[in-house]
């Protein structure tokens, strides 16, 4: 019998390291404020969450952002908090839906719902927490135009990009993440 806890920790570690490396490659989108940057750092988290469970995806998001905070933060942690909240909202919703009934249809439904929830959650988080903390100012209705014209569409675009890439890659990566399960089944059949 294999040590399943060790395998899970190893998979989380590898996916977190990959998420961190992908988070380092970020680029701004035209027409959006420069602090909003696209990266694929959430991709290992959503793939891990689909394969291993929603909370595994959140753990990968947490580790990725702690590493980024230590190595490369330029926002005093505000960017990492925002990235963690964004990624966790997306991963938790999408993977929770997919994990109940693993099919292509529920994957698409989960990713779509995750994208919408992520975009809406980031509007709320930015309005009440992130923008006031980053600008060191009180909550203000003056931030509504920024949220509606930049934060909301940016997060919708980010979710769509992540969803498309996830749908393209997950099926081919799933056997690798489930290798221990497949090996145990093959071992039982061989006996």
Automatic annotation (TrEMBL):
Keywords assigned: Cell membrane, Membrane, Transmembrane, Transmembrane helix, Transport
Name of the protein this chain belongs to: Riboflavin transporter
Similarity comment: family membership: Belongs to the prokaryotic riboflavin transporter (P-RFT) (TC 2.A.87) family.
Primary site of residence: membrane
Membrane topology annotation: Multi-pass membrane protein
Cell location: Cell membrane
Source organism (scientific name): Lutispora saccharofermentans
Transmembrane regions: 12-31, 43-63, 107-134, 146-170
Alphabetized Pfam families for the sequence: ECF_trnsprt
Domain of life: Bacteria
PANTHER family, sorted: RIBOFLAVIN TRANSPORTER RIBU
Biological function: Probably a riboflavin-binding protein that interacts with the energy-coupling factor (ECF) ABC-transporter complex.
